[in-house]
Amino acid sequence: MDDKLILMIPGPTPVPEQALLALAKHPIGHRSSEFTPIMGEVFQNLKWLHQTENDVLVLASSGTGAMEAGIINFLSPGDRVLVGSNGKFGERWGEVCQAYGLNADIITAEWGKPLDTEQFREKLEADTQKQIKAVIVTHSETSTGVLNDLETINRHVKAHGEALIIVDAVTSLGAVNLPIDEWGIDVVASGSQKGYMIPPGLAFVSVSAKAWEAYKTAKLPKYYLDLGKYRKDAAKNSFPFTPPVNLIVALQTTLQMMQKEGLENIFARHQRLKNATREAVKALSLPLFAPDNAASPAITAVAPVQVESEQIRKVLKKRYDIAMAGGQDHLKGKIFRIGHLGFVSDRDILTAIASLEAALLELGYDAFTPGAGVAAAAKVFKS
Asked: Domain named Aminotransferase class V: which ranges (predicted)?
């Protein structure tokens, strides 16, 4: 049957009908009097979502563009930075730093394990000359389903006193409590196709006063991603370049939806979806890739042994029109990832788990009692 696809991947995520209808509206001019108040509302609601009074700037890019902007606007060639790397995206930020001639000191952890916060503390405390200019951390590592302990790492950065903290919150913003002003986070990057519940194409960068001070002396090259341009125009509820107008209108809609639900309820829903998914996977006797104490509310990675990950994904897609994500790089074929981020409900999880059970049985995997996964998820939802 056509048009029944269910996205259970970490992005793009499902889009609510209200947002789809907003996308379908006739475009309006981005310099028009009709667009300016829409943009003003969006900027205000973005600050609400980010729990900040800082600038939250909007770019026409993916989350990678937001992170690149977050790095290059506040640093200079040769600057020493610490980069946490325990997955595909941590590795990427190290590559971005190297591409721009930064002196990147990579703190690594095995994929599927959280970053060791003590390694950050030790390196920051040892930096008595204050040469470390920034610490770059992925909050929710999309490739593995690990949630890193950003609060503790940030506390060590604050004790250092000089370094900025730059955060990839692409799959945590809108799913995990990230109180930017309370914690004093300097730069936070995210993307529209995740917790924002709209298609890819927009990215967001929150910038602190401390980061803007660093911007004044930063010497890395930039033009389209020069956040100073965006800040100047945002003060007039405008853009320095042409934005995807219809995505902005859809974002206006989803931010209103999020405000109606409320931040605490949003975070609680994602926590509930995570718990239900993980309990269901355990009931199916499938190994989880990330430990319970470092599991992301955005995505659950599963590492089956007795049945092939890609075969599971293939059956789910062909038979039940459910898309789940595969592994990346050396994890390709070794894990599959269940997304539960953004416009996802309890019903979606029950549907996905029931379909997963059926797919496993079709593939000859019978190390579980039929219905056990659904029952485990339902138990979480009942509590």
From this structure: 28-328
Q: Give the C-alpha separation, 311 to 28, whole Å.
A: 45
Q: How many CB atoms lie within 10 A of CB 341?
A: 29
Element housing 205 (H / E): strand 203-207
Residue 272 and residue 383: Cα distance in Å, rounded? 10
CATH 3.10.350.10 describes domain 262-382: no
Strand, helix or coil for residue 51: coil
- For residue 126, the tally of other CB atoms under 10 A from its CB is 9
Closest to 340 in 3D by CA, of 1, 6, 18:
6
User: Terminal CA-to-CA distance of the chain, rounded, Å?
Assistant: 35
Residue 49 has which token pair? 């979502």
| Rg for the chain, CA atoms, rounded | 21
In contact, 126 and 120? CB cutoff 8 Å:
no
Which pair of structure tokens corresponds to residue 372?
A: 């056990």
> Which of the 8 DSSP states describes residue 297?
S
pLDDT digits (tens, 9 = 90+) for 310-329: 999 999 999 999 999 999 99
Residue 368: CA atoms inside 13 Å, Cβ hemisphere, count?
Answer: 26
Give me the numbers of helices (H) and strands (E) for the chain, helices first please. 14, 13
Quick one: average pLDDT of 245-266?
98
Model pLDDT for residues 341-381, shown as the tens digit of each residue: 999 999 999 999 999 999 999 999 999 999 999 999 999 99
Record the tokens describing residue 243, joined without a space.
């934005």
Name 176's bridge partners: 173
pTM: 0.97
DSSP code at position 133: E
Q: How do residues 184-193 score in pLDDT, each as one tens digit?
A: 999 999 999 9
Annotation: CATH topology of 17-260: Aspartate Aminotransferase; domain 2 (3.40.640)
Cis status of the peptide bond prior to 12, with omega within 30 of 0: yes
Domain ranges of the chain: 17-260, 262-382
